[in-house]
Design goal:
0% strand, mainly alpha, 559 residues, globular, electron transport
Length: 559
């Protein structure tokens, strides 16, 4: 009873006094690192775009494949995870009455592990000993330090997951029978998904270290690729679920509305957690060695992820319309006139949300055998990645930053930075339309991915790709301008903006809403269901890959 009273007092004190400074320091550090990584990764991306267009000749000491590997690792692993944890821990601290001291220690230890891992990964890439790209597919073999660095980075992510679990478990212990607050519920789902998604890639990396050291002569390529994509596909949806948390929880508050159905929100989270890890095989749908029945099963498993996304689209546009009508909006689509388009916090989230429609539709192409055969090894795939991560996820993160950074820094968003943010959002969006649109189009014409600039001996087909490569370069140039503006805005809000209080905007549930059933809190049950679905998806094919394994492959260095 005394513990519960202390927890209640702590919660009230936190809400009264504002952000907990020790917790804010954690989030501030994680976010600062994430935007530094964004800046470096942005320039690496520009170098790639200019090289693919034939406008930039990279020096011999920093070739295209080094740049490609660093850009992928920086943007897909480091930027996203540092931002995600900075964001989630700020919310956990806000909703659950401040982080426990042991949780702070865990998160700082995780930070150190991730930084050590990032350094160990980057060193061999700079030495041109690990140009294996973000996917690090064997039989391409990197320096052992690269894989060891990935282990440190994965351990850091796991520690962050464990810290969140401890924090939420402590709150539940002191609030028996209550529903975990909605943001913390999102954080729980994201961390559950990440914790289990890391297991296959950790097994793969630990399996590759002895091979990279020469202790094992060959590696099972099919097992390695499958373990990677069980993680790699899920990572995409970890970003997506993080962005979704802002759509459901933050966006309604910014427009003066309420959340649509607390039950639906929690069901969407559960569904995304249960069904996500099984989608990995659609990245291997044209690989040899996988039986047709397994591929067909995974087509359905991958497409199933679309259902919670459709539920999200329904819920969000219902919120927009209902809120707008309360504010005087009329007509079939009159809601759009009442939205705060001049508020960068909403504008970035809305474009992020809207972009997921074409991004998700493009993903269906990679899930279907016949369509994927056309686009799989083309620039279409790169365009799809940039639409999902570069618009849906990145713009959501940018929109979040315009209130989160002032919140944890004890400062306010000024009209000048808000206006700069609106400009930055449109520059970023237009840049991605140029880049991703050109990538999708030229991919349909057969332009391959994973290659530096070449005209293939001035072949007519390759020369026909040139206008699209120029459009990619234009898009990349706009994007680096967007990166610079975004990082400037973050630094300003973090260190130089006027001091003051900024709200952590969490929307309330609908008035007179029906009670949320408590079975949504049974995370043990949902994890068991998730593991059963994962076993159904992977046990048979992986067993087949091991029992009837083809001859293993030695390592190759093609750069």
């Amino acid at each position: 009873m005394e513990t519960a009273i202390n927890q209640t007092y702590k919660t009230k004190a936190t809400k009264l006094l504002g952000v907990n400074k020790a917790d804010a320091k954690i989030s501030k550090t994680y976010l600062f690192v994430s935007f530094v990584i964004l800046l470096v990764g942005g320039f690496l991306g520009l170098a790639q775009g200019l090289n693919r267009a034939g406008l930039l000749e990279l020096p011999s000491w920093l070739n295209y494949y080094q740049v490609l590997t660093m850009h992928g690792v920086f943007m897909l692993l480091a930027f996203t995870t540092f931002f995600t944890f900075g964001y989630l821990y700020a919310g956990l601290s806000h909703e659950l009455g401040g982080l426990l001291p042991k949780v702070r220690k865990i998160v700082w230890t995780a930070f150190a592990s991730k930084i050590i891992g990032a350094v160990l990964v980057v060193i061999p890439i700079l030495m041109n000993e690990a140009s294996v790209m973000y996917t690090f597919y064997p039989p391409l073999k990197a320096h052992p330090m690269f894989y060891i660095g990935l282990v440190f980075f994965a351990v850091g992510m796991w520690l962050c997951n464990v810290g969140a679990f401890i924090q939420v478990a402590n709150w539940r212990k002191n609030n028996k029978g209550k529903h975990v607050p909605i943001f913390s519920y999102f954080a729980t789902g994201i961390n559950v998904l990440m914790f289990f998604a890391l297991i296959p890639v950790a097994i793969e990396v630990l399996y590759l270290i002895p091979w990279s050291l020469g202790w094992v002569k060959t590696v099972n390529v099919m097992v390695s690729r499958t373990l990677f994509w069980a993680f790699g596909h899920t990572l995409v949806n970890i970003w997506y679920l993080t962005a979704t948390s802002a759509w459901y929880v933050i966006a309604p508050k910014l427009i003066g509305g309420r959340r649509w159905s607390d039950t639906l929100t929690r069901v969407v989270i559960i569904a995304l957690v249960i069904m996500n890890i099984t989608g990995g095989f659609h990245h291997q749908i044209i690989d040899p060695g996988i039986s047709l029945p397994v591929k067909m099963m995974h087509v359905f498993m991958s497409l199933a992820i679309g259902f919670p996304s459709l539920m999200t689209a329904w819920a969000m546009f219902a919120v927009f319309e209902k809120t707008a009508r309360k504010q005087g909006g009329k007509g079939l689509i009159g809601w759009y006139k009442k939205m705060p388009w001049g508020d960068v916090r909403f504008l970035a989230l809305f474009i992020s949300m809207a972009s997921f429609a074409p991004a998700g539709a493009g993903g269906i192409a990679q899930t279907t055998n016949q369509l994927d055969t056309v686009v799989h090894n083309t620039m279409w795939i790169v365009g799809h990645f940039h639409l999902t991560l570069g618009v849906t996820v990145a713009l959501a993160f940018f929109g979040i930053s315009y209130w989160l950074v002032p919140y944890i820094s004890g400062r306010v968003l000024t009209p000048q930075i808000n206006k700069l943010g609106v400009i930055q959002t449109w520059i970023w969006t237009i840049g991605m339309i140029f880049m991703s649109g050109a990538m999708h189009t030229v991919g349909l014409f057969g332009s391959p991915r994973r290659t530096s600039f070449t005209t293939y001996g001035d072949h007519a087909t390759a020369l026909g790709w040139s206008p699209y490569m120029m459009a990619m370069a234009v898009g990349g140039t706009l994007l680096i301008i967007g990166v610079i503006l975004q990082v400037y805005a973050v630094i300003n809000m973090m260190f130089f903006a006027p001091k003051g209080e900024t709200e952590f905007p969490i929307a309330e549930a609908e008035e007179n809403a029906s009670p949320t059933p408590y079975w949504t809190e049974r995370w043990g049950l949902w994890i068991v269901v998730m593991l059963l679905v994962v076993a159904m998806a992977y046990v048979v094919p992986i067993t087949e890959f091991i029992v009837n394994a083809p001859p293993g492959s030695p390592g190759f260095k093609t750069w």
